[in-house]
Amino acid sequence: MSKRDYYEILGVQKNVSEKDLKRAYKRLAMKLHPDRNPGDTQAEAKFKEAGEAYEILSNQQKRAAYDQFGHAGVDPSMGGGGHAGGGFGDIFEDVFGDIFGGRAGGGGGANRAYRGSDLQYNLELSLEEAVFGKKVDIRIPSKERCEPCGGTGAKKGTNPDTCSTCQGMGQVRIQQGFFAVQQTCPHCRGAGKVIKEPCTSCHGQGTVDRQKTLEVTVPMGVDTGDRIRLSGEGEAGVNGGQSGDLYVQITLKKHDLFVRDDTNLLCNVPIRVTTAALGGEVSVPTLKGEVTLKVPAETQTGRTFRLRGKGVKSVRNAVTGDLLCTVIVETPVNLTNLQKTLFEELEACLKNGGERHSPQEHGWGNKAKSFFEDIKGWFDSEKEATNKKK
Q: Where does 119-252 sit in CATH, by number?
């Protein structure tokens, strides 16, 4: 009986890529597997046929021979090269191992060196400390390699034994019909080794808890959200792996005067009514001392003045921000009788000047009057429409 074409069996073209070939075989094998078709001899025969086809076509040399000579190039009974290797079972596991956990005894990850975990330390700084930089000592808890046992977890002079359950692989494979599940070895818990005589210092963990003091150099200009990386100051690695890193997370405390906005500083500056009306000078604090802010006459509350170069120097470049001062005109309180009288005389004088002295007040008043007139007109029209319907 002549054999079917391997490409036809798998339902692919002769120029199919290795990736598409594997995908086609997976789809067919899942459909025809005996566990999904119990008692179906025809499906079992097709399942084996597909495995044979994939074994040949997934091997570059065999595929080239088959493409040139057909079945004669790969079938031993016809003088060809034969089915070398571990047979169909190995082919099936190679294709489906990424789904079902791989072969039993595979991986070998239990004895690999693993990098230690990174740690984070939250550091609060005042605005001044962040702007000018400083050195800070911090104390952090950490896990370090146990010196008496060298990190093995076994008592000094002894060594861990290879786990007899997983043969040192750290994982075991459970086959349940068509499905294979790979899971952590329950005996050694994935370590691949069993410690019969634990180290008395670390109790078999290989690491010990420590408190260590580190000096952190805070560069000038750091801001909330910035991180300082201390290489190798994280947790100790496993099986000789390198230690992780420590990241110092910066947070700025609330300041009494300033609010930081990147490299700029913002602040509110209260001024007297007379200063706002007549103009004058106000002393304003900066990070490097007081400066004089000139307030022009007729300044309104909310106006912002920019003092260039009085902000923060960036931690990333040489750019220095500005100080933005927003003036707040303060209404006088706790007035004496004399002061009240003077304000009443001033009010009368200003009132006589009308819009000339208070353009914003009058502009707002005109808009409010127009609004009320529109609302009244709308209500009147609605009332008239209602009466007509009656």
A: 2.10.230.10
